[in-house]
Queue: 2 jobs
Job 1
Amino acid sequence: MNKIENISFENNSNNKENVISLLKNEKKSLPTHYLYDDLGSKLFEEICNTEEYYLTRTEQQILNAHALDILKEASPLEIFEFGSGSSKKTKSLISKALKQKKYITYFSFDISTKALKMSYDQLKQISKNLDVQLIQGDFNNDICRIKKSKRKRLYLFLGSTLGNFNNNVAVNFLNNVAKIMNKEDSFLLGVDKVKDEKIINMAYNDKKGITKRFNKNILKVINKEYKLNFNENNFLHNAKFNLEKSQIEMYLESTVEHSIRLPNNEDLNIGKGEKILTEISRKFSEKTLNSLFRKANLSIIKSYTDKKKYFSLYLLKTKKYLFP
Ligand code: SAH
Ligand code: AVI
């Protein structure tokens, strides 16, 4: 396998004090990226294959239907994907790009070692004209250390991972992407749209219970990382659409009153019914997206959707060159 370049910088959001203080807050939460250890990354792949999780297959259909148009607009020699996961969805786009350009460099950027390994395995056989670069980092903290493109680059942020950011973090992320984009670069963003809440709720409560395992696994990760003693049997998976905020909120809900021993030997009390927020997953309207793009200095060049308008892809350019 190619060497993984680690550009992560030890920062506040990843340290022990921060995690403990999030747990001590009146509204408890855990940083979402802890969902993605080796097992979590594998479970996410399984979620993508469940009947209920419409996001992946819908985005794949849109991508397949419009790949040639996207490539015509972007004409990339480099493809840089944030939160690439296994790169399964991107594979066909890369193959099509290779038919148009002789050599392509694909940068897979992810926090998870397992995801980067899966990405490499997915792509290694495609062509000797494909150079796969694996970069490990946090897309909210390490984006400033990403080198700008040397050749025309297409940035990808798929899967509606943007939905896992609150509004400020989303504006910040999009702004940072706009900042590293050169004039000729493009940015393809995949987002999940507002729809009937029953369909959304089902997607996060699959019958096989894979999302439940994915959610509960965060406790094993935190236990290992910070020597804590969470018992996953004391919690149930709770994922519900919050209509007002237009977001799924995924929690671990305590079924009993119990306590966790903290590293300073203090006991953290968790009441029966108390919830720990592990993830939000926003479902976007056109209005919210337009406001996000405006704040981030991005302009829509083209957009693509499916028949049911469940999911959209936006091809964006940075405004700084369009209207200097
Ligand atoms: N793009 C893929 C995978 C989406 S899952 C798809 O559409 O199917 C989200 C991905 O983002 C995972 O691979 C996870 O490891 C990665 N990720 C989560 N938090 C991250 C962070 N803070 N920085 C970088 N990658 C992160
Ligand atoms: C990666 N992310 C966009 C997924 C989502 O739908 O918010 C993660 C996920 N959580 C539960 N199921 C899938």
Job 2
Amino acid sequence: MPTVDARPGPFAFDPDTTALLVIDMQRDFLLPGGFGESLGNDVAELRRTIGPLTALISAWRTAGLPIIHTREGHLPDLSDCPPAKLRRGPMIGQKGTFGRILIRGEYGHDIIDELRPEPGEVVIDKPGKGAFYATELSATLEKLGTRQLVVTGVTTEVCVHTTVREANDRGFECLVLADCVGSYFPEFQQAGLEMIAAQGGIFGWVAESPALLKEIA
Ligand code: TIU
């Protein structure tokens, strides 16, 4: 079985039952001048993931393995946005540089050009931070026969963490790629990765993408 050099120890995986999850690589979070930057964040902290992710996705496609993309966002009437989320995110649904912020169908809500999904790749629209809550992700993974997930995307301590925790509780083994996940806050990036692999891999494994690329080349 291919085995990746990871923390806290080797991550062995069966390519036939492993899927790549690319979380929320959306213009609203990553583009200069967008929603993320308007909140005072440095998008460069997220944009450094684009290069490694481009290489990984390309290799994953060549290997013929499944890729699932997610997007955080809401229906235009915000009926799927809990009032509690809206109270702490009053910009959701407002007009931003790239259309209504985090609204499905708007330019800013979609995935950045560099990582555009190819036909046949699943795109999961999610109203929450976790990719399992109120989505078809569980059913999709069951249909694929997936047991292990390679997790990438943004942001490390928010949507990546929530999704990995959800996945771990559902029995999936998750490998998080440090160079393919990003946080606006360097200290959260470091702590977020440490939390995953701590205590013997309390809810996953952490590796760098070249260690995985070697195994699927
Ligand atoms: N995708 C994701 O993490 N959504 C967020 O709201 N992240 C923040 O860091 N705000």
